[in-house]
Amino acid sequence: MEYHEAADFLFDLRRFRPKPGTESTARLLAHLENPHETVDFVQVAGSNGKGSTARMLERALREAGHSVGLYTSPHLEDLRERVRVDGRKIPQSAVCEYVEAVHEYATERAADGESPTFFEAMTAMALWHFGREDIDIAVLEVGIGGKYDATSVVDPVASAVTSVTLEHTGILGDTVEEIARDKAHVVPENAPLVTGVTGSPLEAVRDVAGDVVTVGTEPSGDASDGDDCRPDVRVAYGGRTNHTEAAVSIDDGDWDLETRIPLLGEHQAKNAGIAAALARQVTDVSDADLERGLRSAHWPGRFEVMDTGPLVVLDGAHNPGACEGLAKTLETYEYDDLHVVFGAMHDKDHRAMAAALPTLDTVVATEPMLDRAEDRAVLADVFADAGARTVRTETAVQDALATALEAAGPDDCVLVTGSLFAVAEARSQWTRTDVPKRVRNLADARDALEGANVAPGEVERLDGDAVHRVVRTALRDGQATVLKEELLRLGGECALSGLERDDEAVNAVLMGTLAQFEALVEALEERPQPHGLADIVRELRDTLALEADADIGAESATANTGDGDESTQPPSRTAGRSRWSGRSDTDASEYPWADRTAVMGILNVTPDSFHDGGEYDALEDAVARAEAMIDADADVIDIGGESTRPGADPVSVEEELDRVVPVIERIADLDAHISVDTRRATVADAALEAGADIINDVSGLEDPEMRFVAAEHDAGLVVMHSIDAPVVPDHDIEYDDVVADVIDHLSERVLLAEKAGLDRSQIIVDPGIGFGKSAAENFELLDRIDEFHALGCPVLFGHSHKSMFARIGRDRDERLEATVAATALASDRGADIVRVHDVRENVAAVRTALAARDPQRFEWDS
Predict the structure, then answer these.
(1) Residue 316, class by beta-carbon neighbours within 10 Å (0-12 exposed, 13-18 middle, 19+ buried)?
(2) Which of 2, 56, 392, 436 has the greatest count of CB atoms below 10 A from its CB?
(3) Could you read off the pLDDT of 533-546 as tens digits, one per residue?
(4) Residue-by-residue DSSP string for 32-65
């Protein structure tokens, strides 16, 4: 079964059950032989805040050393976002395996009018996946209510009700008290229910749950009521500490902590308190684990600040209560005019939502691309009645966002809200990656098509057309259709994935000659685009490094490998992809990889690194080694004070500082850039103060302070894809397509660094050779390293003497030649930096590769 067939099967299931209850989900799980029975579950219910709370709890439990599953809804762009294990989306192959296991059963039940619903089938898939992954704890976001929700098929070890507002009254009840009683049925058998509810809904919760732990600010209610109004867990919102984080404190009398969270608003402080209380019920979690877990709980689309000039905020507020919280948080920012892009579903209270938002200067009403979206004309009337000064309409969310951004001044605010569906379509401006595919033969063409879930018949029909320029991207159905029709008209080809739905991104593989792509871009730029295609056209122009018209202002560049031939060179779009307002003072041309592949020399000042541990841990030896590498023409010296080899023991911050800082101070004035290889922000900060220029973070920003340290120093930052650092031996990770999956993960990491204040020219991406990948996967990353330029960042390849070369028969002490060969290949395929131990030999490999690509340009003195 193909992935698009499996996803279509799930989407085609009915949405609601005539008779409520958990019986259908229980029967489906019984058919699967109850794979979830070895897992502990936590349920999080509520009208608002349950997704954020679930995410914060999941991160805290992972920091405490547990393997954790997370089940949430809805998704932003990909069905698989709903089911995660330790942060990783469920693989496409697992979705196919699950659907194959339930397809016949669901079909038979449908014949009797008892087919599982979409949400029931998704819930069962989550529980099935959590069981097969043998995780410790799973956090389940409840769908609707609590008593009859599909997630209530489990017996939770802990549960929460975050908040209660009037919602789904036709299902849950006509009053907040009735709704509260329904939600309270998630109460665990042997633990109190944790809740942020107050007032009469709290009494209704107590009627059902009995023992509860209340979470809130102090005092909660009328202070004259005495201690009865005091919450058991008291939280305080300390306000924003920067444009993306806020300070919170949590105290239950026996323990207290202070931290920062990346979720803004007073309501998020309460959610953090609920998550902390749940974590304390579930496991023995330290204050440090809680602090770091809560701070690492990034949750896209929930008051997410995407830019600062103008201020751009994405928030999926979808009911009046959520809009009230959004308004309170927005009040903490200073701006002149407010420009709102609003797209909502037809079953929402639009007038109450409009009334809850701040005073509106401009509203652009729009429609997300799905059938349940409210007509933009209806929304325009709502906001006109609400007193908005200017009301406009746009067909597509991307066009509405472009209109708002064009109208906004640098001191204004642009807010996208009304539903997570609208937020998802707007957010694609920052997250979409158009991947240039390297197609050398029919096998490459078939891989490109199959990787986009193109139907087998289409693969066979089109593989011969995919031998010129090939770009893979993800679009909304309407956008993909327009692009396909136009490219076909020009003589090119376009294959779409079998999954063609208005609420899911469609994979598109565009194929044609360079001339056909140029004609496509020109044709689309010459006429109005009703489907939000303007930004997509600019992205396509950058991806293919096409010549930009003067009035467009788009920037493009070839890959930084020293080859000036645009027709053969993979593009590096560092300048074109930045959505921020040029806040970095660093000129990208100052870096040695600006116009060629740079060589980063490894200097491990450790006793236990896998290749050279103990050789340079004495200060004088380390300095001499750095000088020798610079004499051999190293562009960067990368100094590491902690080994990340398999089984390596972590070292203390103090010991790591003692190892690296003295070396950096001694070599800071030498003729090379200095990089510090560390997972710790404290070490990175000290190293930059000592004279380093770049942070090389092999954990991929697991330390939540790291991105801010880099931004404060205006430093370069290497963001690596790693499952474990240090490496955990025999930790098998399942990838559908290792390159696509790693790009997908890195895209969010890059966005985090960008939102902290770094430009993409400063953010270097590293696919993480040897970290959670097999030898075959490492070689595939090498072969397709050019695809990482889709992220708009320089690309680093770190392969020196690694175990991948055992696959070609090279033991630990005989991998120099293989390393040099891989360096030449990486340079030829578009790597901007290679990280190696043996500088002289690898410099020669880089120069040979560059000279072969452009013999007229590159010449070095002997």
Answers:
(1) buried
(2) 56
(3) 887 888 888 777 66
(4) TT-TTTTSEEEEEE-SSSHHHHHHHHHHHHHHTT
Fold classification of 593-834 (topology level): TIM Barrel (3.20.20)
Rounded mean pLDDT, 503-510: 81
Catalytic residue among 295, 802, 815, 829: 802
How far apart (Å, rounded) are the C-alpha atoms in residues 653 and 655?
Answer: 6
Whether 44 and 191 have beta carbons less than 8 Å apart is answered as no
Q: Which fold has domain 3-89+96-107+116-295?
A: UDP-N-acetylmuramoyl-L-alanine:D-glutamate ligase (3.40.1190)
Helix (H, G, I), strand (E, B) or coil at 785: helix
The one-letter amino acid code at 583 reads R
Strands (DSSP E) found in 252-405: 256-261, 304-308, 311-314, 338-342, 362-365, 390-393
Q: What is the mean pLDDT of residues 557-571?
A: 34
Q: Provide the β-strand partners of residue 161.
A: 45, 195
Look up 27 and say whether it is catalytic: no
Rounded Cα distance between 657 and 649, Å, is: 16
Sequence-separated (6 or more) residues with CB below 8 Å from residue 341: 363, 364, 366, 397, 400, 401, 404, 414, 415, 416, 417, 422, 426
The yes-or-no answer on residue 147 being catalytic is: no
Fill in the DSSP letter of residue 413: E
Count CB atoms within 10 A of the CB of residue 670: 17
**DSSP single-letter state for residue 151:** G
234, 835, 847, 853: the catalytic one is 835
**Quick one: pLDDT at residue 222?**
45
Instruction: State whether CATH 3.20.20.80 applies to domain 304-430.
Output: no
* Three-state DSSP state, 634: coil
Cβ atoms 216, 161 nearer than 8 A: no
Contact 739, 448 (CB under 8 A): no
pTM: 0.84
Q: Which residues of 99-112 are buried (b: 16+ CB within 10 A; e: fewer)?
A: bebbeebbeebeee
Beta-bridged to residue 237, according to DSSP, are 248
Contact 738, 714 (CB under 8 A): no
Give 304-340 pLDDT, tens digit per residue: 999 988 999 999 998 898 899 899 999 999 999 999 9
Residue 706: φ, ψ to 5° = -60, -45
User: What's the start-to-end Cα distance of the chain, in Å?
Assistant: 58
Give the start-to-end residue ranges of the domains of the chain. 3-89+96-107+116-295, 304-430, 434-556, 593-834
- Strand-strand pairing, 304-308 and 362-365: unpaired
